[in-house]
Automatic annotation (TrEMBL):
Record's bilayer topology term: Multi-pass membrane protein
Designated name of the protein: YidH family protein
Membrane in keyword set: yes
Transmembrane spans: 15-32, 59-80, 101-120
UniProt KW keywords: Cell membrane, Membrane, Transmembrane, Transmembrane helix
Length: 126
């Protein structure tokens, strides 16, 4: 029997959830990066005026892909740190990291930007 097996498996499940989240974030970033192709298709190739910022979706998508890659690195670091803490005989208190709070703030800001951006795009098409 492996000592602390349930703790190790819970740590691994958490790690895999972070990896799934990062992959979803990168996939969504790719989708947003290609949003301008969708807009051109829906307007039947017409030149879009009124200052539409087609490049914004490309930069936002690239940013989300990079954020997903950084999230994988941070999740891996956290996974190994938790493995060491589980194996150690000393007691340690759980603390949330500032990285988690920063990532949460970034995702909320990203969601707000997407709402504003897509709303602007849709009102400009009319």
């Amino acid at each position: 029997m492996i000592p602390h097996f349930s703790d190790f498996s819970a740590n691994e499940r958490t790690y895999l959830a972070w990896i799934r989240t990062a992959i979803s974030l990168m996939g969504f970033g790719f989708l947003i990066e290609r949003f301008d192709v969708f807009l051109v298709y829906t307007t039947r190739g017409a030149v879009l005026g009124n200052g539409l910022h087609m490049r914004a979706s490309e930069w936002l998508g690239l940013g989300m892909i990079l954020l997903g890659a950084v999230l994988i690195l941070l999740a891996t670091r956290s996974f190994y740190r938790n493995c060491r803490l589980i194996q150690s005989e000393t007691e340690a208190s759980y603390r949330g990291s500032a990285v988690e709070r920063v990532l949460t703030a970034l995702l909320v800001a990203l969601a707000l930007f997407l709402v504003l951006y897509v709303g602007y795009q849709l009102t400009s098409l009319q």
